[in-house]
C-alpha cells in the first residue's frame, strides 16, 4: 500500500497535440493518501477512465509522473505496479470455473495452494457466490460475471490500490446498494487505497471520503462531499452535485450587493469588482418562497417523497426550490428570497472568495 | 414452453429438398448404383451385391493410399494450425501495416490449385527452378522427381505455403473480436504471456479454430490437383493419395464399380473423421 502522487500529469491520445481540445487530461497534480477512499466523478468523456488507466499503467502519460510512495512508477508496466482494477464491463476467463477465476491473480503470484483456497473462500463469501464456486464462468449472467470481476479485484491483499471503473453499471439496483456497502466495509477492514470512477454522484458521495470532480479533462475540485456541496469551486460542480443542481443567475456584483434582473440582493460578504461573466449561485434548499425578492415564475411542482421540488424560472433562467414535505406551497407566490450566507459568486465559472473585511 | 406443432411446415422446405435432390442426392445415387453392379460394356449391368466394397476394403493398394493420405493430413494439420495461430498472434492489429499484411496473407489463397502446382513444379526443378537449382548449388541432394522424401517435402511445403494463410486469417478474425479490457484485466492479474494465450486468446479462437481444422482436414484429405501437377503421384506411388488413386481407377482403368465403392467409402471416412474432430473440439465448450 502506498500514497499515490500525480505530479504535473497530462495526457493526449494524439502524438502531436496542438490545441487545448487535443488533451484528454490537462495538467494536474494530486496526492492521494494511503488508505483513502476516493471517487473520480464526472460526466462521460471527461477523462476519468484515462486517469485511472494511467494510474494502473495501462496507459503511459504524455507528460508528468506517477509516484507510489516515493517511487516513480511512470515507466513501470502494469504487472510490476501491483494494482487491482475492476472494469466497467465484466471480464471473466470463460473456460475457468468461478473458483479458478478468483484464484487466478493469486496463482500468478505463486502463492501456496492452502493460502489461495482460504482467500478464495473469503472473497466468495464477500460477493455471495459460495454456491456457484464450481460453475463455469461462461454461462453466468452479466451481474454474476461482474461480481467475479469485483472478487478478482479484491482477492489480492497486498495491492497498492484497488481501482474501480464504473463497476456497478451492469448490476441491478438492489445488488448495487449491497455491493457498495460491502466495498465500504471492505475498505474499513483492510484499508486499501480505493479509487472509484463513476458518473453517479450518489455512488461517489456515499463511497468516498474525498471526491475529485472532473470536467473536460480537468480536475475542477477535490474535496469532501460536504465541501463540494457547500462551496463548489466551479459552476460545473455546483450544477453536477446535488439534485437538482445549484441555481446560477447572471449578476452584477458590487461590494455587498448583487443585481439580478433589476432586483438588488444583499450578500453576506463584500466582493472586489471583477471583469468577466459574473454569476451568483445558490442551492435550491437555501431559497424560500417570499412576498418580495426575485421575481419567480413557477412551472411545476414535483413531489419526490421526503421533499418537493418546485421548478420555475427567474429572469428566463431555470431556477429550482426545494421545500420540506410538510411545508405548504403558498398560493400564487411570485417572488423568492435567497439566504445571503449561502450565495456564492462565480466569475467565468470559477468561484471567487469574498474580501477579508466586510465593506 | 409449448411449441406449436404443424406438419404442414414441411411443405415449406420442399423447394430446398428438390434442389438438393438434383444437386447432390441423385448424382450420389448414380455412384451408389455403380457400386453394387458390374458391367461388361454395352450398357448392360448386373447385380454384384457388396462385392466391390469387399474388394476395395481388402485392397493393399488402397490401404497404402489411405495410409499416405492420413499421414499427409496429419502433417498438414500439425504444421498449419500452430503456424497459422502463431502468425495471427503476430500480425499487426490495426493501421496501414495491418491492411498490407492482410492483403499479402490473402494472396496465396487467390491462386488456382493447378497454378500453385505449376509454380512449385517449376520452382523445385533442379535444372531451371529457383529453389531446386539453389539447393543443388548449395550441395543439397534434392530431387523431387526421383526421391520420395523430397517429393513429400515439396508437396507439404507447397500446401503450407498455399493454405496456412487461411488458418491465420480465421484466427486473426477471432483475435480481433477480443475486447481490450480482457488484455488489460490479464495485465492487472499479472498473467504470463502463456496465460493470456491459454485463458483469453485460445478460448476466444476456439470457434474459428474448429472451422479452420475442419476445412484444412477436408481439403488436405481430398487433395488432388497440386500433387498431380507436381509429381503425378510419383516417384512410384509415393505421393499417390486417395483422390489420385481414385481418378486412376475410375478414368484411367475405367473400373467404375470398384471406383464407385471406393468413392462411397472415401466419403464416409471424411464424414467420420470430421465428426470426431467436431465432437472432440466442442466437448470442452458444452461442459456445465
UniProtKB/TrEMBL annotation, chain A:
Keyword Lipoprotein among record annotations: no
GO molecular function terms listed in the Swiss-Prot or TrEMBL record: ABC-type ferric iron transporter activity; ATP binding; ATP hydrolysis activity
Q: Which organism is it from?
A: Paracoccus chinensis
The organism's lineage is: Bacteria, Pseudomonadati, Pseudomonadota, Alphaproteobacteria, Rhodobacterales
Family matches, as SMART domains: AAA
Q: Which InterPro entries match?
A: AAA+_ATPase, ABC_transporter-like_ATP-bd, ABC_transpr_FbpC, ABC_transpr_MalK/UgpC-like, Mo/tungstate-bd_C_term_dom, OB_MalK-like, P-loop_NTPase
Domain of life of the organism in this record? Bacteria
Query: Is Metal-binding included in the keywords of this UniProt record?
Result: no
Q: Which family does it belong to?
A: Belongs to the ABC transporter superfamily.
**UniProt keywords, alphabetically:** ATP-binding, Cell membrane, Membrane, Nucleotide-binding, Transport
Protein's UniProt name: Carbohydrate ABC transporter ATP-binding protein, CUT1 family
List, for all copies, the residue spans of the domain called ABC transporter.
Answer: 4-241
Q: Name one Pfam family in it.
A: ABC_tran
Single GO cellular component term: ATP-binding cassette (ABC) transporter complex, substrate-binding subunit-containing
TrEMBL record, chain B:
One GO process term, biological-process aspect? transmembrane transport
Coiled-coil ranges (or none): none
Q: What is this protein's record name?
A: Carbohydrate ABC transporter membrane protein 1, CUT1 family
Gene Ontology CC terms, in alphabetical order: plasma membrane
Bilayer topology reads:
Multi-pass membrane protein
Q: Which SUPFAM superfamilies match?
A: MetI-like (SSF161098)
The UniProt family comment states: Belongs to the binding-protein-dependent transport system permease family.
PANTHER family from the UniProt entry? GLUCOSE IMPORT SYSTEM PERMEASE PROTEIN GLCT (PTHR43759:SF1), TREHALOSE TRANSPORT SYSTEM PERMEASE PROTEIN SUGA (PTHR43759)
Q: One Pfam family, please name it.
A: BPD_transp_1
Domain ABC transmembrane type-1: start-end pairs: 66-277
